[in-house]
Structures are given as structure tokens and as C-alpha cells.
Amino acid sequence: MGIRTERNATRVAGIGHRDESTLVCGRLPTEAFALHETFSTIPDLTVECAPLAAAGETANMSMLWANTDEADLIDVLENDPTVFAAKELCRTEDRHLYRVEWTPDVHRCIEILLQSQGILLSNRGVRSGWSVEILYPTREDVRTAMECCERYELSVTIDSIRSLDSDRAVECGLTPAQHTVLTQACRDGYFDVPREIGLEELADKMNVSHQALSERLRRGHDTLIRSTLIETSSVSPTAPSSTLSL
Fold it and tell me: Phi and psi for 81 in degrees, rounded to 5?
């Protein structure tokens, strides 16, 4: 099944001007992308591409952090049919950095997604699938990438599509990642009293690490408070407590 669904098409049609930079957050199943057999062998494995934003053919995902204490991960990687070669570069207590050479099928998926114009900002893989954040120069680049995914039957689930140039989040100083986690947390009831969803469950749902989600929420809160309450607020410090209730 390809990327283009009625819901996704509506999202594309609803975003702003054709020349606006557009951020797409989506997910791919491991069997349609990479490391399906590795995740089947090590179910609790989490991998993240090193944060090196790259576009087009340069976005080769060659540097991969793996969060695991599995001693034989290099052997598992080298036996995965989507990996041509792998080499461990360094390790910490619970993270290993690998240089990975992918097979042509993985490179083809990346090229389909990016269409030589998209910029791969982040990519994280767990057993249930890969989550990606891709920045496209214009809305038309998004449409082109979607049509290409449909043509080559690359299965992608789109979680959000946003035009950044007109996004209120930019005015508040939020990064795309901070805006995504804050809005998703709000929709899922993380800020409700009592909470409808916990931090760990929300992190799993969004395919991000517990630590990354916590940091983005904290920094997003700080940015929103500074931009909307501290810098622009005209409320007197002696205002009644009911005016300032949370």
C-alpha cells in the first residue's frame, strides 16, 4: 500500500502556500524499509541515525546509534538482508555507534522519500517501525514525493504535515520537534488532570526515546512560557491569584 490515502491527500491540500517549507512526520514498517530481521532477533533494540541533516543522495543513514547491551549485534547486523556491511566505531555503556552500508533497496526507499529535494532531519527505528521527519522546500515537493511513494508502492503512514513558514510555532520560537510533541501530548491527554497517558506510553506511541520526549517537552514549555508569558505578558505581579491559575 502506498503513501497516498484520502486522509493524507486532504492534509496536503490543506497546508499553506505552494512555496512554503513543509515538515512531514511519518512512519514506515520495518519490512518495507530496513532491519526487519534484526528487530525480529533483538525485539527491544532501538536505533537512531546520527543527527546529520542531509538531502537527496547524501542522506545515506550511514551512521547509526544502537541502544542495546547485545554483545553480538554486529553479527546480527551483518546477517540482515538490508545491510551490505557494518562496522562498530565506538560504544558507551548502553549505546553503540555503527557505520552501516545499506543494500540498494534501502537507498532506493530513501531516494523515493526525499526526491532529491527533501532533507532527512531524523530517523528512528524500533521493532514496530521507523519514524522519520523530512523537511521539503515546498508543498509541491511533498506532493511529488507522495506520488512517487504511491507509484513504487512504498508503504508510509503520515502523522503530520505542516507548513513551517506560516506556522504559529515558528513565531513562538518552537522547533518542529518541540511543536510535534507538545501538540501530540495535548491531544492524547498528557496535560489532563488526571492524565490520560503517561510519559513512557506517549514516547512509545510517538516512536521517540523517553529521554528525548522529556527534553523536548521541557524545552518546549520553557520556550512557550518565555515567548507568551514573560516577554509579552502585561499581567501585573500583584494580580489576583485566580487570574494566574493553572
Answer: -65, -10
DSSP 49: E
Q: Is the separation of the CB atoms in 180 and 160 below 8 Å?
A: yes
Among 1-5, 62-66, 193-197, 211-215, the minimum mean pLDDT is found in: 1-5
Cα–Cα distances in angstroms (integers) from residue 151 to residues 27, 75, 96, 101, 109, in the given order: 18, 35, 36, 26, 12
**Dist. CA 116–CA 42, nearest whole Å:** 33
Longest dimension (CA), the chain: 67
Calpha distance 7→118 (Å, rounded): 21
The Cα–Cα gap between 110 and 96 comes to: 23
CA neighbor of 86 nearest in space, from 31, 38, 29: 38
Q: Can you list the alpha helix ranges (DSSP code H) found in 22-175?
A: 36-41, 73-78, 104-114, 139-151, 168-172
Report field, pTM of the whole predicted structure over 0.70: no
Residue 18 DSSP class: T
| Contact (Cβ atoms closer than 8 angstroms) between residue 136 and residue 16 | no
Confidence of residue 237 (pLDDT cuts 50, 70, 90): very low
* CA–CA gap between residue 149 and residue 221 (Å, rounded): 36
> 208, 131 in Cβ contact below 8 A?
yes
Q: Which residue has the cell 555507534?
A: 97
Domain map of the chain by residue range? 6-163, 170-230
